[in-house]
Amino acid sequence: MQRWRGLEDIPQDWGRSVVTIGSYDGVHRGHQLIIGRAVERARELGVPSVVVTFDPHPSEVVRPGSHPPLLAPHHRRAELMAELGVDAVLVLPFTAAFSQLSPADFIVKVLVDKLHARAVIEGPNFRFGHRAAGNVAFLREMGATYDYEVEVVDLYVRGEAGGGEPFSSTLTRRLVAEGDVEGAAEILGRPHRVEGVVVRGAQRGRELGYPTANVETLPHTAIPADGVYAGWLTAAGERMPAAISVGTNPQFDGTERTVEAYAIDRVGLDLYGLHVAVDFLAYVRGQEKFASIEALLEAIGADVKRCRDLTAGR
């Protein structure tokens, strides 16, 4: 899969293509439906498929300080898109000047002049251009002039537990923030992932017999609510069952919120400096301050057993 950053990276001899545009944070099941249809339509037409996305998130430029928590960094989104069969991903730097482009100018500069769109596939609520003035109807209207077709794909609707809401990044972020990682996984189609580099912490886990990887998460990462979770720690290509702690470590009066993962039944791991991934499978319990270290150790032992059971065979 080709990866481009900015319009200038697109090959000059690029021909017709099928395009879909969006932030696509998380590449959840609704996104997968749209992107999958773009890939399918591209194959029908015998042309490549392209996903256009933005960095930073448009809201950070339009309303500074409003950057939403991210469900997946751009490199992870590209990996997920490649798995769906996408031929190229174009990341457009979203600047103040870019935000001023009218819907018509966006269509001409991006879809027509550079990507030579043969078809554009979007969800029903797609908006684009200055002040999000462009919509699917305008996109289709301009398609008649610039020789591209527009296809709208309906999004999945989550079941009764989600109040009948369409699958969305906003809903997924809310579920993650609430600690409902199983609900988030229902929308994503996989466990929610947090990534970062393993750094040295207070090393209390090592002293207690449960050494943890202290993950320095990427900026704006969507981190689950404080608590203990079952999941997996992936490092250097190896996926290991893990007991994961999110919070400030109230037992030792901590103040800094951290994500720490204990690789269950693994001895002698040296992960410092490695970029790792932590996948959240299930919520186990909330953060607590215990009456003694002995009580803490008993709880940790129970947590590890629970996490071992939850991840077994998964």
From TrEMBL:
Annotated EC: 2.7.1.26, 2.7.7.2
SMART domains with a match to the protein in the record: Flavokinase
TM region(s), chain numbering: none
Keyword flag Kinase: yes
Broad class of enzyme this protein falls into: transferase
Catalytic activity: FMN + ATP + H(+) = FAD + diphosphate; riboflavin + ATP = FMN + ADP + H(+)
Listed pathway(s): Cofactor biosynthesis; FMN biosynthesis; FMN from riboflavin (ATP route): step 1/1; Cofactor biosynthesis; FAD biosynthesis; FAD from FMN: step 1/1
UniProt keyword terms in alphabetical order: ATP-binding, FAD, Flavoprotein, FMN, Kinase, Multifunctional enzyme, Nucleotide-binding, Nucleotidyltransferase, Transferase
Family affiliation: Belongs to the ribF family.
Name of the protein in question: Riboflavin biosynthesis protein
Origin species: Streptomyces lavendulocolor
Biological classification of the source: Bacteria, Bacillati, Actinomycetota, Actinomycetes, Kitasatosporales
